[in-house]
Design a protein that fits this description.
By secondary structure, the chain is of the alpha+beta class. It is built from eight helices and 14 strands. Helix 4 packs parallel to helix 7.
């Protein structure tokens, strides 16, 4: 190529100074080769711009992934917190249904509580799917969003339910405060040992109807009234030993047997949760425990249908 330019000369003439300058063929050839090279690079970039952009983009994404390790940790912590909240919501739902049962309100089933909550979105254009590629490991952001949405639904449903419960309880407050609704002893200090139904009597070894629930506990463990009422009986009563009977009105009566000590007298008014006695081993008893009965119009009922407070 240099030989081609040797045949030609580039002469520059200055009109004002009437001077003449000659440009060497080597400089001219270098200049033209440089221009050609730049033109080739320019068109190459245009031709391969898509691939070039992809390379730059992939490198940028990898840098984002490396930098987003801390973001992943935050998301993992938030996921754990949301899981904990979902467990708490479930516990509240159980308590909510227990209270609704006490107030004779229809329970809210799980299908209704989960209404409107579906699986993760599979839409590739979903904004959560668009962001997942920035994270250093696979994270289902749409599933995280579904859980948040479910929490919002649960809170709104809970507000509606509690509003209905509050209205019902306010209208019929006197009836429900006199309705047996809790366990007579704290389950932190006692153990359920025998329920309502037929069993073999430990003294006669014959099958007999056990008309209440038994709770094993240390002597002196506090015994509480399970509803508001008036003490009907407080005395030593045959095989029951130290015995208390409380009339709650509306046909309901509760009985507490084998007590070590009685803390209330006949005719005394009591409230739900009030201390009325202590667990003992008096009367016909093989060990320290409380025998608890619920009667409705002189017929015994299964007490397990009346335990609405799960915290006791």
């Amino acid at each position: 190529m240099l030989n081609i330019f040797k045949k030609y000369k580039l002469i520059l003439i200055d009109k004002d100074k009437t001077s003449v300058n000659e440009v060497s063929s080597r400089f001219l050839s270098f200049f033209l080769i440089s221009i050609s090279f730049l033109v080739i690079i320019f068109f190459s970039i245009l031709l391969f711009s898509d691939d070039f952009n992809k390379i730059i983009t992939l490198k940028s994404i990898q840098n984002h992934k490396n930098n987003n390790v801390e973001l992943q940790k935050i998301i993992d912590n938030q996921t754990t917190e949301i899981s904990f909240l979902l467990e708490e919501i479930n516990k509240l739902n159980i308590r909510d249904n227990n209270v609704r049962k006490l107030l004779k309100l229809p329970e809210i089933n799980n299908d209704v509580r989960k209404l409107g909550v579906g699986g993760s979105s599979n839409n590739k254009n979903d904004k959560f799917n668009e962001l997942e590629y920035l994270l250093p490991k696979n994270t289902d952001l749409s599933h995280l969003n579904d859980n948040i949405y479910f929490l919002k639904l649960s809170i709104n449903l809970g507000k509606l339910s509690y509003s209905e419960i509050e209205s019902k309880a306010t209208l019929e407050n006197n009836y429900f405060t006199h309705y047996p609704a809790i366990k007579p002893v704290s389950m932190k200090h006692s153990k359920f040992t025998s329920g309502y139904g037929y069993r073999y009597d430990p003294f006669t070894n014959k099958k007999k109807l056990h008309e209440g629930d038994d709770f094993s506990a240390k002597r002196g463990t506090e015994v509480m009234s399970t509803a508001d009422g008036i003490v009907k009986t407080s005395r030593y009563y045959g095989s029951f030993g130290n015995y208390i009977e409380i009339d709650h009105g509306n046909g309901y009566v509760t009985c507490y047997g084998h007590l070590h000590k009685r803390n209330v007298k006949k005719g005394q008014k009591v409230e739900r949760g009030q201390l009325i006695g202590q667990v003992g081993n008096t009367g016909r008893s093989t060990a320290s425990h409380l025998h608890y009965e619920i009667r409705y119009k002189n017929k015994t009922l299964d007490p397990s249908d009346f335990y609405f407070d799960l915290s006791l």
